[in-house]
Write a structure and sequence with these properties.
394 residues, Rossmann fold, binds nicotinamide-adenine-dinucleotide, alpha/beta, seven-stranded parallel β-sheet
């Protein structure tokens, strides 16, 4: 079949296998070029390993530190007539390169929130990998089934306390119009915390510790975004921000439980980036289009793999990690530089449909978005017949 992007709203419903593979190879090449990570991890579990920050974490652990990796993701396999999800193709490509490099890589494609998946991971670790020294928690999901009750919880992206109106870019029609989001009620706030808060992270670490699968000097990290004034009403101070605050609570509780393995649990604050998760958040596409322009002009723009390389070398495996007052690793420092934020805030009110491609880097945003699905890669001829099938190697 000929595979060209089919974008519907803020998602792309297909993906290009060779394009995705090329993206994975590019990230691996970047990681290798940085050289070995001193004191890096050796056995790593990545929850949410197939796209975005989780994929970059897996690549950094494997190709920057020679680690055995066990990844968990929730991805759609291909059929003869339908493409797989991008994360499926990414994972297949990761396995190909890891195998050639002689690295031990295992993946479970299943619901990380379920007890069955946790049991499968424990079994695989016992039989194929051993005790882990790093667990990365990088799940981004709109819903979660509680493993004990079977109740399905859905998250919402809403402000708290009062409604919020802001300029918003429709990435499909390229129309810019004000949107108003009504405030969340108490139930919606609680449900969002249930999906994206720390409960499942803690269940994972408890299960691993209970099975004696944590190595000495064990670390675990969960990812968050804080942002600044422009995004606070819809992110930092909104329902998703409440869920992320819950990660801080859990990091403290877990660190106390991990003393027997000299372990620690921390939250890492990462920069805003175009990923499947962030493109669904109102305001973010316009904020990112401006941010990309400002940070490129500054020479400080980064993608997932650059961010995670700095997380490993400047925080996780550094004797003097950059921590904030709440004990979180900070890798969002370049995004939050006051001069960068001031420029973004100055551009924000000036953006119109007419000047979108001049005063913002919306082209860069679109390129990054399509790249998530394997499109726009220079080395790929998208007019050539391609099979949607790839070798099922995980
Ligand atoms: P993403 O959508 O690219 O990746 C999500 C991952 O979770 C995928 O591997 C997917 O397969 C997996 N997943 C989802 N539901 C699952 C389930 N039920 N079981 C197993 N796997 C499942 O997301 P991302 O943007 O890389 O976000 C990862 C984390 O980083 C999130 O916690 C997010 O809040 C945080 N973060 C994102 C940004 C950003 O701008 N994108 C910034 C800072 C922090």
């Amino acid at each position: 079949m000929i595979i060209k992007p089919k974008v519907r709203g803020f998602i792309c419903i297909n993906a290009h296998p060779q394009g995705c593979a090329a993206n994975v190879q590019e990230q691996i090449a970047f990681t290798k070029a940085q050289g070995p990570i001193a004191g890096g991890p050796k056995k790593v579990l990545v929850l949410g390993c197939s796209t975005g920050y989780g994929l970059a974490s897996r690549i950094t652990a494997a190709f920057g530190s020679g680690a055995d990796t066990l990844g968990v993701c929730f991805e759609k396999p291909p059929t003869d007539s339908k493409c797989a999800s991008a994360g499926y193709y990414n994972t297949s490509a990761f396995h190909d390169v890891a195998k050639d490099a002689g690295l031990n890589a295992q993946t479970i494609n299943g619901d990380a929130f379920s007890d069955e998946c946790k049991a499968q991971v424990l079994e695989l670790l016992k039989n194929c990998i051993g005790k882990v020294d790093l667990v990365v928690y990088s799940l981004a999901s709109p819903r979660r089934t509680d493993p004990k009750t079977g109740v399905v919880y859905s998250s919402v992206l809403k402000p708290i306390g009062q409604g919020y109106s802001a300029k918003n870019l429709n990435t499909d029609s390229l129309k810019i119009a004000d949107i108003t989001v009504e405030p969340a009620n108490e139930q919606e706030i609680a449900d969002t915390v249930k999906v994206m808060g720390g409960e499942d992270w803690e269940l994972w670490i408890d299960a691993l510790q209970g099975a004696d699968l944590l190595a000495n000097n064990f670390q675990t990290v969960a990812y968050t975004y804080l942002g600044d004034k422009l995004t606070w009403p819809i992110y930092g101070h909104a329902t998703i921000g409440k869920a992320k605050e819950d990660l801080d609570r859990v990091a403290k509780t877990m660190s106390a439980k991990l003393t027997s393995v000299n372990g620690k649990a921390r939250v890492a604050v990462l920069k805003a980036l175009v990923t499947q998760a962030s493109s669904a958040i109102p305001v973010m596409p316009l904020y990112l289009s401006i941010l990309i322009k400002v940070m490129k002009e500054n020479g400080t723009n980064e993608g997932c793999v650059e961010q995670i390389q700095r997380l490993f070398t400047e925080c996780l495996y550094n004797a003097n990690p950059r921590l904030d007052a709440a004990g979180r690793y900070r890798v969002d420092n370049k995004e939050l530089e006051p001069a960068v934020q001031a420029k973004v805030e100055a551009i924000w009110p000036q953006v119109t449909e007419e000047n979108l491609f001049e005063i913002t880097d919306h082209k860069g945003y679109r390129d990054d978005f399509l790249k998530l699905f394997g499109f726009g890669v220079a080395s790929i001829d998208y007019d050539v017949e391609t099979s949607s099938l790839v070798e099922t190697n995980f």
